[in-house]
Write a structure and sequence with these properties.
There is one protein chain. This protein is α+β, with helices and mostly antiparallel strands. It has one domain (about 5-35, about 45-275): Clam (outer membrane lipoprotein receptor (LolB), chain A). Helix content is about 20%, strand content about 45%. It has helices spanning about 10-15, 15-30, 60-75, 150-160, 165-175; strands at about 50-55, 85-95, 100-110, 115-120, 130, 135-140, 145-150, 185-190, 190-200, 200-210, 215-220, 225-240, 245-255, 260-270, 285. It has a 15-stranded mixed β-sheet. Strand 11 and strand 12 (about 225-240) form a beta hairpin. The radius of gyration is 20 Å and the shape is globular.
Length: about 290
């Protein structure tokens, strides 16, 4: 694992999904191709006007009322589900020259129960299959005929991935991560509302569209390390079964180096339909 994954628990926790995807792809030992450029938007991205504190928030009471309104609208956009299935394409590269492109992934989730991921490439189907529960991680590498079976506590040590099941769910489904009601620093333009949420050891920043409060960008920074951050950009929204779903994600993790991940949800996005999460371990596979 690269040095980034040696960061402290809180920093690693906020990038759990990304580390999971990178770990899955890395364990598959897929061939590296020429790196595709994953473009990064400026944060904040709105340049349509001068950003200033909303004039209605001139008193503490008005500020609280404005924050309560934002919180309510954000919660209205929260995607709820019983089951979820989607197909997506994943590209990954770093400023160290490592890249994995055109990874096809199938994700299935049963809320608060199972996250199932199958990764493949154009020539090889189902190279890696991974199943995550609140208690365990199972990963089959069909290329090398190996299987990794860990309880979550051991998986954290083995892969340097401190899984948080709820955060993984929200990242995959497109919900805001590290959002709470401690909303401060509210600023507005004609197209974007920006605000921050305070946590004990980190700050989460949000840009949402002014018309419907859909997520545009979020950024999590460590209070103790200004150069350590995780930034997510959401785009290409599509209404799926009454839910506003961002089909395009761009994720940037920055510490000593920069990791970039592009996730593009493609052919199938479906909520609340029956899903299966098959996970067979061939008898001749080597356990690690």
């Amino acid at each position: 694992m690269p040095p980034l994954w040696q960061a402290n628990y809180l920093i690693m926790r906020r990038t759990a999904l990304l580390q999971c995807i990178v770990a899955v792809i890395s364990l598959a030992l897929l061939s590296c191709g020429s790196a595709k450029k994953i473009t990064r938007a400026n944060f904040p991205s709105d340049t349509s006007g001068i950003v200033k504190r909303d004039s209605s928030a001139t008193t503490a009471e008005a500020e609280r009322a404005l924050a309560a309104g934002i919180s309510e609208k954000m919660k209205d956009n929260h995607i709820d589900f019983k089951t979820f299935e989607a197909k997506l394409k994943v590209d990954y590269n770093s400023d160290k020259g490592n890249s994995f492109n055109n990874i096809r992934a199938n994700v299935r989730m049963i809320k608060d129960s199972v996250i199932w991921i199958s990764c493949s490439v154009l020539i090889l189907d189902d190279v890696v299959r991974c199943m995550i529960t609140k208690d365990s991680l199972k990963l089959v590498n069909r290329k090398d005929k190996t299987v990794l079976l860990r309880d979550i506590a051991t998986a954290k040590e083995t892969l340097n991935i401190p899984f948080d099941f709820a955060t993984l769910q929200d990242l995959l489904i497109g919900n805001a991560i590290y959002f709470n009601d401690s909303i401060t620093n509210i600023v507005k333009t004609s197209s974007v509302v920006s605000f921050s949420c305070q946590h004990p050891t980190l700050i989460s920043l949000f840009n949402v569209f002014a018309d419907d409060f859909g997520l545009q960008q979020s950024k999590v920074t460590d209070k103790d390390s200004a150069g350590r951050s995780c930034e997510l950009t959401y785009g290409e929204y599509k209404t799926v079964q009454g839910r506003k779903f961002p089909t395009q994600r761009r994720i940037f993790i920055e510490e000593k180096n920069i990791l970039k991940i592009a996730m593009d949800f493609k052919d199938k996005i479906e909520f609340d339909a029956p899903v299966s999460t098959p996970f067979r371990i061939p008898a001749n596979y080597t356990k690690e």
